[in-house]
């Protein structure tokens, strides 16, 4: 099945509210545990969550690694407003967790005042890649923002083989979900990449140290330590 891109940013009010209210707890926690396994428990002290949305993964990273500072970036102001509201309710995380409005691809050169200027020891992303019209923008950002020896971990949907397989997944996974989330999931499955396409993206960006593999029935994961 050919890829059909979907809109990049998620900033429509109904979309943002439905996403923030949805219960992704099990899959989000599994993602962070998978990262912990892949990086042998040590992502280092400076973590970047690319395409953080309302912060679902960023908060988990900050709680899981209490010695680390975490920055979540996203291009959607309404998503970030929710992330910051949530952060206001968790004062103990405030010294170590922050959010910034940044859209990919990054401007070159980065503005001097950018919160992204320093090297990150781990670059993490969940469900961003399939949104991107130019996926190279993500891989260039990973290469530019990583500290030497940084760990990279990304999870995303994997494109099913046929429209019928998409329909079956939507029916099974989105039973009882709000219509906006069902539509979103349907579009996302059509927009997702295959592991082979991601391999070509990584090679094209010179990120040959990173591995990509299918994960369970619906996902793919990218992981590895940069030189
Ligand atoms: C499906 S959400 C995932 C949010 C979060 N990572 C999570 O796991 O809950 C995808 C997010 O990527 C953001 N996004 C899409 N394209 C982007 C771009 N070009 N630059 C920055 N953020 C982008 C969207 O605004 C949205 O918040």
Question: How would you portray this structure in words?
Answer:
With 227 residues, this protein is an alpha/beta fold. The protein is 39% helix and 21% strand. The chain contains eight helices and seven strands. The chain has helices at residues 13-21, 25-38, 56-64, 77-88, 136-145, 163-173, 179-191, 195-204, and strands at residues 46-50, 69-74, 97-101, 120-126, 146-157, 211-215, 219-225. A seven-stranded mixed beta sheet has the order 3-2-1-4-5-7-6, sandwiched between helices. It starts with 12 loop residues before the first helix and ends with a strand. The site of S-adenosylmethionine has 19 residues, from α3.
Separate helix tally: 8
What is the number of E strands?
A: 7
Taking the sheet with the most strands, its summary is: 7 strands, mixed
Shape: globular
| Terminal residue distance | 35 Å
Helix/strand order: HHEHEHEEHEHHHEE
Strand content bin: 15-25%
Structural class: alpha/beta
Overall mean pLDDT stands at 96
């Amino acid at each position: 099945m050919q890829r059909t891109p979907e809109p990049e940013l998620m900033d429509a009010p109904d979309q943002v509210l439905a996403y923030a209210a949805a219960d992704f707890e099990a899959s989000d926690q599994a993602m962070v545990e998978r990262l912990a396994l892949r990086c042998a428990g040590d992502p280092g002290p400076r973590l970047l969550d690319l395409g953080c949305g309302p912060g679902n993964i960023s908060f988990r990273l900050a709680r899981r690694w209490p010695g680390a500072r975490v920055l979540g970036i996203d291009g959607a102001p309404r998503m970030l407003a929710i992330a910051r509201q949530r952060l206001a309710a968790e004062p103990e995380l405030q010294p170590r967790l922050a959010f910034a409005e940044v859209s990919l691809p990054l401007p070159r050169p980065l503005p001097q005042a950018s919160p992204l200027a320093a090297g990150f020891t781990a670059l993490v992303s969940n469900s961003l890649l399939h949104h991107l019209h130019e996926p190279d923008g993500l891989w260039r950002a990973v290469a530019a923002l990583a500290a030497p020896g940084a760990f990279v971990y990304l999870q995303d949907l994997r494109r099913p083989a046929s429209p019928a397989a998409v329909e079956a997944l939507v029916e099974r996974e989105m039973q009882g979900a709000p219509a906006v989330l069902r539509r979103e999931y349907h579009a996302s499955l059509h927009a997702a990449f295959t592991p082979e396409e991601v391999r070509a993206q990584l090679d094209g960006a010179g990120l040959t140290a990173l591995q990509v593999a299918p994960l369970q029935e619906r996902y793919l994961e990218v992981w590895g330590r940069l030189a």
